[in-house]
Sequence to fold (190 residues):
Amino acid sequence: MREEPARPEPSAGLRLAIEAGPLLVFLLAYMVRDLFAATAAFMGAFALALVASRALMGRVPAAMWFSAALVTVMGLLTLALRDETFIKMKPTVLFGSLGGLLAVAGLLGRNILQRWLGPALPGLAPAGWAGLQWRWSLFLLALALTNEVLWRSFPTTVWVHFKTWGDTALTLLFAAAQLPFLRRHGLKLE
Fold:
């Protein structure tokens, strides 16, 4: 049996394009038409992102599968029932589920964040992993709550722009803000 050569690790830019591409398609479709067209476009773009992830990275991360399932279910409900509520609740369900999963795992003494990100954060001590998991859990739960407030209290346009730019910006800022904590707990950066 012939062994396949290892794929080179994709660049951060490529990973970002695969993950952010569907959001940009969603925003553009919304700007051109409406939320229903944006939802359909988002579903198609997400399917393409799954294929691109598999083809270019050799795998599809579990969180991306989960998000794809939510996009599909909530998108189909939105389109079939012509009700914006379902696609607007998708970030709440996604962030709430991931945040809750991290919290429950932490309470059970399991660190699934370390399993997901271990190779990316070399040298991080167990206390660092535990702290990081709780921080991400709380952050994701806060994003879920923020999404609920926004879609229920503001016009759809505000929600669409926050979903596209706000969530992404807050996540990047939050991740960057964790660096001092990670360094104190042994993270070794090249």
The helical segments are 12-32, 35-57, 62-81, 85-107, 112-117, 126-153, 156-177, 179-184. The two ends are 36 Å apart (CA to CA). Residues 126 and 187 are 11 Å apart (CA to CA). The first helix runs from residue 12 to 32.
